[in-house]
Write a structure and sequence with these properties.
The complex is a heterodimer of chains A (about 475) and B (about 425).
Chain A lengths: L9 H4 L2 E9 L20 E6 L12 H7 L4 E6 L19 H13 L3 E2 L2 E2 L1 E5 L9 E15 L2 E12 L3 E6 L2 E5 L6 E6 L7 H16 L11 E8 L6 E6 L5 H17 L7 E5 L5 E6 L6 E3 L6 E2 L2 H9 L5 H12 L3 H9 L2 H8 L5 H17 L10 H12 L8 H10 L13 H14 L5 H12 L5 H13 L1
Parallel strand pairs in A: 3-10, 13-14
Antiparallel strand pairs in A: 1-11, 1-12, 2-3, 4-7, 5-17, 6-7, 6-16, 7-8, 8-11, 9-10, 12-13, 14-15
Helix pairs in contact in A: 4-5, 7-8, 9-10, 10-12, 11-12, 13-15, 14-15
Chain B lengths: L7 E6 L2 E8 L9 E6 L4 E5 L3 E8 L19 E6 L21 H7 L8 E6 L10 H15 L4 E7 L5 H11 E2 L5 E4 L12 H13 L5 E6 L7 E5 L3 E3 L8 E3 L6 E3 L5 E3 L13 E2 L7 E5 L10 H5 L4 E6 L15 H9 L4 E5 L12 H9 L3 E2 L5 H12 L5 H7 L20
Parallel strand pairs in B: 6-7, 6-8, 8-10, 10-11, 18-19, 19-20, 20-21
Antiparallel strand pairs in B: 1-2, 1-5, 2-3, 3-4, 9-17, 11-12, 12-15, 13-14, 15-16
Helix pairs in contact in B: 3-8
Classes of the chains: A alpha+beta (about 475), B alpha/beta (about 425).
């Protein structure tokens, strides 16, 4: 059924599509003081729980909740004490909404041109698949009516919410599910677009544009698993489907296309489609998760006081908004003559500008290369772990470079020694003058006559690695051999 | 038309227009905000200064409570559930902010349909009160209500629900008030409100109904034994204490093993043989409690004049939660309590010593300073009785006896399992 290669005419199909982007924030968890860094520690505590569908504030049991309760499942939770406390276990009331996370959320909201609500109210969203120990997810609407500019016009961002991340599912068995609680409660910013996305490719553009805004703000977590995209799709005569769990932008167009074709196929067979939540699979297809929850799902979190956001606070945040990442990249490319891909990394890493400003005798490109490219080489070429390098290690090496005590080719060797914990004798890496180098090369050639340029190159570099640049050596060799 | 909480409204503010349901705002919150529940279910607060107009689109209509008929199964015993308020029965109407459930049997069955296959239920809400607001008056009403249910022929056992904070005061009160108990009286409650899927109320209530059908005839609590939803502990009403502010396993047995473990499927595993069995006699009640009893928490450096209050008010007696074995400041002239304690003794106000370590037994003689209190100042040491239980017991004794010597004699005498004769090794931090 996914075989048709005919291009889809989205407009004719009555295609409606909106995105929900979930971005984790840094600092402490949203309603307790546990860290947001997931520890890799083995679980040292656990509890077994049951969940029950409860009557929501409309007096009705939510259909998504009833669906889960029908499964009558047992949930096994496990945790490590370094990242989980009584709050995650639903054994202690929540602490007040974390101000740091709220600050990051408000910065993002303003960058997305949204209106901050005057007073933020935390709600409970009923979730009884076990991913929230309480049976609900705490969530608050913090801003309304934002927008972003795209190649196909403005796309609205009607809702920006700050909510708790769910627990991570470890496994599932007969009537049972296992979860780890390290992730539960990490602040999550949910950004929902309007259903005005025009096509599968447009969806990717919107997602990447919002992603760029998120990466512009301090307090936003980076790395795999810290951002997820959900897509809501429907076509005429179809039904709204929410597809969860995109980790990568590039898969968005494919998954949307497949989903549209799936709905088309079912409609052509005369089947009636129902609202549902589907999971994005690695092969771009989707699978059924649960029926889409209704409005009966939200009720007030009475344990957390509402948070007033004053005009003065908003003005203060607005005056201190970071530059958008795209603008920063452009500045770095122009100001430091960095290539685009290096500027991208420098834009996200405050160390570059700090170091380039401190060590002015080093060309900025070399600073960037040392910070962003050398670590990758250390790993791929020398099989060393660059994360063992401290800021101080880099500063030390930059110091030698800045004072002309070492040649630039010595940088990788010095950093490698730092990782291995070896002693560093800088004098061994001192640069050698061109005349000295030429003299030494002449000696080597005289000692072993008749070799090829490559042969001499190997001998010279073995002796002067880190002191002389390969390029210079080759230059001298060519000159001598040409004699 | 003035908009009321629950109405569907359109709010015009300088930021734009919003449609939603107007929500009530607790009085204690900062004034100046309208709370609106938007179509998407989220609540937001809108600064009233920005609001130019509020139109009512639809007036609030009270939701109808769907009640269904209960079936009576003659093969099942009848259990009576009496509710006295607290988290387990607080259900808020989020549209208006008011509480609305009366906790009839239908409410409990609606909350937990499986109860219907465990027992025939008869249920009544006696009062709706948060447990911190309870007082001797409530314990008297409670004793009366439970006593009446116990003597109903069809009732096999009684389940009592109330708030957790002072649950152990209530269980102690009822333990003393009911005499010749022939059926179980099981107190249960919730540490998490019942509007959340994870509430402990569900398993606690289910296990309590099982326990009320069972063969252990005591006044006891039935609450989570651990953080797992797998079983509850039955703990004697005079040997139980809330030991944590919020955990669902907060209720722990003190100085005695729990009576039993109850599982949601009805299995009861007996852990302590020291309990009564079912019998057929009528239960009697002696349910009055004195209002003139003090409970004082001692601390180093306390001002002895604090005791003047009890003298001036002519209290019937005072329980002191002393340190460890029963010590109070006695040596330093400046803050020794001895002179005031002697005044209390001479004024006919008996003083009873318990311990703030909670666990363990007080001792009147092992140290000189203890003897100064017991032999010297006439304080009565109350063995391994909890301070809260001693307070309740004193309220109960004073309602019946005016003779100070009789009161002094009864306090350290076991009446309702509040004093053990042997200190169990395994019961510490159970």
């Amino acid at each position: 059924m996914h075989g048709d290669n005919q291009e889809l005419d989205y407009k004719k199909l009555g295609f409606r599509c909106g995105l929900e982007i979930h971005q984790q924030l840094e600092g402490s968890k949203l309603f307790c003081n546990c860290p947001t860094l997931n520890s890799a520690e083995k679980a040292d505590y656990g509890a077994m729980r049951k969940l029950r569908a409860v009557v929501g504030e409309t007096g009705k049991i939510d259909i998504a909740a009833a669906h889960e309760m029908g499964k009558g499942r047992t949930f096994l939770y496990e945790s490590h004490s370094s990242d989980t406390c009584l709050v995650e276990y639903d054994e202690e009331p929540p602490f007040p909404l974390d101000r740091e996370a709220l600050g990051a959320g408000l910065r993002v909201a303003l960058l997305l041109n949204a209106k901050i609500v005057d007073e933020i109210h935390v709600m409970r969203k009923i979730v009884i698949d076990g991913s929230n120990v309480t049976g609900f997810q705490r969530t608050a609407l913090i801003a309304l009516d934002g927008w972003i500019e795209t190649s196909e016009g403005r796309v609205g961002i009607p809702l920006i919410c700050l909510e708790e991340e769910a627990a991570q599912k470890l496994g599932e068995g007969e009537g049972k599910a296992r979860y780890k609680l390290d992730r539960l409660g990490i602040p999550l910013l949910e950004i929902a677009t309007s259903a005005s996305i025009r096509s599968a490719e447009h969806a990717k553009e919107v997602a990447s544009r919002i992603g760029m805004v998120l990466r512009s703000v301090e307090g936003v977590r980076r790395g795999l698993g810290t951002i997820r995209q959900d897509v809501n799709i429907s076509i005429e005569k179809g039904a709204r489907t929410e597809i969860k769990g995109f980790q990568e932008l590039r898969s968005i167009p494919k998954v949307i296309e497949f989903e549209v074709r799936r709905q088309q196929h079912l409609i052509s067979e005369g089947k009636k489609l129902s609202k549902e939540v589907r999971k994005a699979e690695p092969d771009f297809t989707t699978s059924f998760l649960r029926p889409l929850p209704g409005a009966a799902r939200l009720y007030p979190e009475t344990d957390v006081l509402p948070v007033k956001v004053s005009k003065e606070q908003i003005r203060h945040i607005r005056e201190n908004l970071p530059k958008l990442r795209d603008e920063r990249i452009k500045e770095l490319m122009e100001g430091y003559k960095l290539p685009h891909d290096v500027a991208k990394e420098a834009a996200e890493d405050g160390r570059f500008e700090a170091m380039a400003g401190r060590f002015r005798n080093i060309p900025p490109q070399l600073v960037a290369q040392t910070l962003f490219t050398t670590p990758k080489e250390l790993k791929s070429r020398l099989n060393l772990d660059p994360s063992k390098l401290s800021e101080g290690d880099y500063e030390e090496v930059f110091g030698y470079l800045d004072q002309g005590k070492i040649a630039k080719d010595a940088v990788i060797e010095l950093l490698a020694r730092k990782i291995r914990g070896e002693k560093i004798d800088v004098s061994r890496f001192a640069g050698i003058s061109d005349e000295e180098l030429e003299g030494e090369i002449r000696k080597i050639v005289a000692e072993k006559p008749g070799l090829s340029a490559g042969g001499y190159m190997g001998l010279v570099m073995a002796k002067f690695r880190g002191k002389a640049e390969g390029k210079k050596v080759m230059e001298i060799l060519r000159k001598l051999m040409g004699d | 038309m003035k908009p009321q909480a629950g109405d569907k409204v359109r709010v015009k503010s300088s930021d734009g227009e919003y449609e939603g349901i107007l929500m009530p705002r607790p009085e204690i919150f900062e004034k100046g905000f309208l709370v609106l529940k938007l179509e998407n279910g989220y609540n937001i607060g809108i600064d009233e200064k920005k609001v130019s107009k509020v139109d009512v689109l639809e007036q609030y209509g009270k939701p109808e409570q769907g009640h269904r008929e209960r079936k009576h199964d003659p093969s099942l015993p009848t259990i009576s559930i009496l509710s006295f308020g607290g988290t387990i029965s607080s259900k808020v109407d989020y549209r208006t902010g008011g509480t609305y459930a009366d906790y009839t049997a239908e409410d409990f069955v609606q909350m937990m349909p499986e109860l219907e296959s465990v027992a025939n239920l008869r249920a009544r809400k006696v009062m709706g009160i948060m447990s911190e607001d309870m007082s001797p008056e409530e314990w008297e009403a409670m004793a009366k209500a439970i006593h009446a249910e116990l003597n109903e022929k069809e009732v096999a056992g009684v389940v009592v629900t109330q708030g957790t904070d002072t649950l152990h005061f209530s269980t102690a009160a009822i333990s003393f008030a009911l005499r010749n108990l022939s059926k179980p009286v099981v107190f249960t409650a919730a540490q998490r409100s019942i509007d959340r899927g994870s509430s402990d109320a569900f398993m606690n209530l289910l296990c309590a109904v099982h326990a009320a059908k069972g063969g252990i005839v005591e006044v006891m609590t039935c609450m989570h034994g651990s953080l797992d939803d797998d079983s509850c502990l039955l703990i004697r009403g005079t040997k139980v204490r809330k030991m944590h502010t919020s955990r669902r396993d907060a209720f722990r047995p003190i100085n005695e093993l729990p009576l039993a473990r109850v599982f949601p499927d009805g299995k009861i595993e007996v852990l302590n043989q020291n309990h009564r069995k079912r019998s057929s006699g009528a239960v009697s009640v002696s349910g009055q409690f004195s209002r003139d009893v003090g409970l004082l928490y001692a601390y180093p450096g306390m001002d002895p004049d604090i005791l003047d209050f009890f003298l001036e008010k002519k209290y019937g007696g005072v329980v002191i939660a002393a340190t460890a074995l029963g010590h109070l400041p006695v040596t330093n002239e400046r803050n020794s309590l001895i002179p005031k304690l002697k005044k209390l003794r001479d004024g006919g106000i008996p003083v009873f010593i318990t311990t703030q370590t909670v666990y363990g037994r007080v001792h009147p003689y092992v140290y000189t300073n203890l003897r100064k209190l017991s032999i010297g100042a006439g304080c009565t040491f109350c063995e391994d009785m909890l301070p809260e239980v001693a307070y309740i017991k004193l309220c109960w004794i004073l309602a019946q006896h005016k003779d100070v010597e009789k009161v002094r004699e009864l306090m350290p005498t076991n009446i309702a399992g509040e004093i053990t004769t042997r200190s169990d090794v395994e019961s510490f931090l159970y």
